[in-house]
Amino acid sequence: MTAPFPPDNVKIYGIGELTRAVKTVLEEAFAPCVWVSGEVSNFKRAASGHWYLTLKDSESQLQTVVYVGVNRRLKFDLRDGLEVIARGRLIVYQPRGEYQLQVEEVQPKGVGPLELAFRQLKEKLSRLGYFDRRKKPLPPYPRRVALVTSPTGAAVRDMLETLTRRWPLTEVWVHPATVQGDGAGASIAAAIRKLNTLPGIDVMIVGRGGGSLEDLWAFNEECVAQAVFESRIPVVSGVGHETDLVISDMVADLRALTPTDAATRVVPDRTEVLTWLDETEGRLRDLLLRRLDLAQRRLADLMRRRCFRLPLERVRELERRLDEWHERLQRALRQRLAELRRRLEAQAARLETLSPLNVLARGYSLTRTDGDGVVVRTPDQVRPGDRLLTLVEHGRIISRVEHTLDSTL
Amino acid sequence: MSQPSADGVTFENAMVELERVVRDLEDGEIGLEAALAHYERGVSLIKRCYAQLCDAEQRILLVTGTDEEGKPILQPFQHVATESGAVEVKRAGPRKRTSD
Questions:
Q1: Considering only residues 380 to 399 of chain A, which have any Cβ-Cβ distance to chain B shorter than 8 Å?
Q2: Suppose A66 and one of A103, A146, A199, B6 were both cysteines; which one would form an S-S bond, judging by CB atoms 3.0 to 4.6 Å apart?
Q3: 3-state SS of chain A: helix, strand, coil percent to 5?
C-alpha cells in the first residue's frame, strides 16, 4: 500500500508561483536593505555599463550587480580580490529563480574609497609612464602666465597678489574652471586643453586653495592627469595646502605646495632682479676699470723700453749712415766726371790729327771757286778769268785763272 | 606683459645678452676698444631692464572664451572675493594678506 502522491490537502506550487512567493518572503525579510562584507570575484563590466560580480567568503558566494547609475558615481574601480562592504537590496531574479544583491553603495574595506581610488589611478598612470617623462623647464622670465582656477575665492587672489608683487612684467590670463564638485575634473581638463590652443602662454598654473580630500578630488581625476600630461605648455600644479598631494601634482612639470607657492615659482622676484642689475652695473664698471688699468700698465712697460728712453739714438744712427752714403755718392760722381773728361781729351786729339788744317801745314792747299765755293778738283770746273779762293796754311789767296790744262802727268 | 621694447628685445633676451657681456668682459681677452663697447652695451641693457621693471604695470585678463577663429576673448579681470570682502587686484605694491 502506498500513500497517495501528492498527499491530499497539499498545495502544489507552479514554479513561477513558488518563485514569486520566495521573492516576497526573501525580499521582505531583508527589506529595506542589507549590508554584506566579502571579496570581489568574477568581476565583469557589461556592454550596458552595468557591473556583474560575485561576492564571496570562505563558505559561500553571492551574485551581485552594480547598475551603471550607481557605479558611475564610484571613484575607485572594483576588481577581483578587493574586500568590500556593500549595502543593497536582496532581490530574486524571477526568470532564473536566483537571488542577487543589487548594490546601492559599496566601499573598500579597511581603506577610504578616495584613498583607494587615488592609489589605483596612481598605479595606472605609473604604468602609462605619466610620472617618468621629462619635465618641461619653466621659462625664467615668462611673458604670459595662465591660471586655471576658480575666478572667485582666495586662491586666485593670492596668486595674483604674488605675481603682481614679484613680477609685474607678466601678463596674466585667468581661465575660469570649476574646481570642486560634479564636473570639476572635466572643467579643469577642458581649460588646460583650451589654453594649449591659445598663443603666447609661457606657463600655466593649475590649482585651488585648501579643502577636504573630497574638495580637492577633481585634481585626482584621470581626465585632469591626462590633460596635464598632454599639455605642451609647462604646467605647475598648486593644490591645497603643503601636505596635500594630488595626482596633478605628480604629473605636472612642477609641483608647488600651494597656489601662492606656484605663483612664486613661475616668476622671478623683481627686487632680486633689480639688486642683480645694480650689482652687475658695479661689476661692469670694475671690469672696465681693471681693463683700463691693464692697458695703462702695458703702456708704462713700453715707455720704459730703450727706444723710448733714448729716442734720438736711432735718428743719429740713420743720419750717420746717410752721411756715409752721401760721401760715397760724391766720390763716385767725381770719378765718373774725370773719366769722361779723359775720354773727351782723347777724342779731341784724334780729331786734331784728322783736321784739314794739318794737311795745309804740310804744304797742301785747297782751292774753291769764289762764287759758289765749290772745291776745284779738275781743270774743266773753271774757265779763264774766274776768281778762285785758295786756302793755305796761314791765310787765303785770291787769284784769277789764266788758262787751264789737262793733266799730263 | 613685458612687451618687447621698441627694438624687439624681450626682457629675457636683454638679460641673456647682459650676462654674456659681463662674461666676455671678465675673460679679459678682448681689446680695449671692444671692452669699452661692451661696457657701454652692458650699461644700456641695464638701463633698459631697469626701465622695463620700474614702468611695468600688470595686466590681468579673464579668458571668457574663443571666437570662431579660435582667438581668445579677453576682458579685464576684476577679482570678486567670495570671502573677506572685495579685493582690488590692480595695484602696484604688495598688500597684506587677509587669509590664505
A1: none
A2: A103
A3: 45, 20, 35
Which member of A170, A197, A273 has the closest CB to residue B58? A170
A194 contacts B10? CB cut-off 8 A: no
Query: Which positions ≥6 away from A30 have C-beta within 8 Å?
Result: A89, A90
By Cβ distance, the residue of B35, B49, B95 closest to A161 is B95
Indicate the domain borders of chain A.
15-110, 120-268, 271-323, 359-400
Model pTM score: 0.67
- ipTM value of the model? 0.71
C-alpha grid cell, residue A388: 778762285
Residue among A156, A168, A287 whose CB faces B26 most closely: A287
Residues linked to residue A175 through DSSP beta bridges, in sequence order: A148
Q: Could you tell me what percent of chain A has a pLDDT over 70?
A: 99
Cβ atoms of B44 and A275 closer than 8 Å = no
CATH number for A15-110 (one of 3.40.50.970, 2.40.30.90, 2.40.50.140, 3.40.50.920): it is 2.40.50.140
Tell the CATH topology of A120-268.
Answer: Rossmann fold (3.40.50)
Distance CA A27, CA A90 (A): 6
Residue B1 confidence (pLDDT) = 42
C-alpha cell recorded at residue A197: 590652443
